[in-house]
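User: Thanks for the earlier help. One more: TetR family transcriptional regulator. Can you show the sequence and predicted structure together?

Assistant: Of course, both are below.
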Amino acid sequence: MGHSQADKAASRERVLRIAARKVRAEGVTRPGVAELMKEAGLTHGGFYKHFTSRDDLISQASAVALAEGSAKMERAARKNEQDPRAGLVDAYLARQHRDSPATGCALVTLGADAGRGDQHFKEAYEKQVRAYLDLIAGLEGDTEEARAEAMLTLSALVGATLMSRALADPGLSDELLETVTGQLERHASGPLPPAD
């Protein structure tokens, strides 16, 4: 690859990384081409050297944003050697994750967009859901029951994070994260006792 081709590839990757961060933080409708190119240190006119359209860029950036989550989830699970599932739950439902959507899990931000998106977008979202389900189920022995638990866990993680980001009351937001964390950890340790 010649120097100019290497520069072009590096510029394209820089734009994709910036766009992936933006779609995680703001969804797919907000980031504009001029804004993204300026942040990447490139001219608006150079955009079409890298992407066929804004939709092309957003589609690729969304796929990048979704895929980046797997490594983070695996690292979170490895932090707690005694109970990897608890490590994953604690990291996902942490205030830091709630307060940092630009570097957080794209499943939270892009769920509604994927639901309204084209087939390619839905497939990229589904690929990430499947990867997370496999990871979580694998922590529990990869049985049919573990897969069902993984579906419950992932749904609670994504839903609680989404809701906690949307609440105006910081106290309620914190309470939601703490309560769901506690309930998931209690649920993982065995059936909940019947209510009195």
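User: Great, one quick takeaway?

Assistant: The chain has one domain: 3-188.
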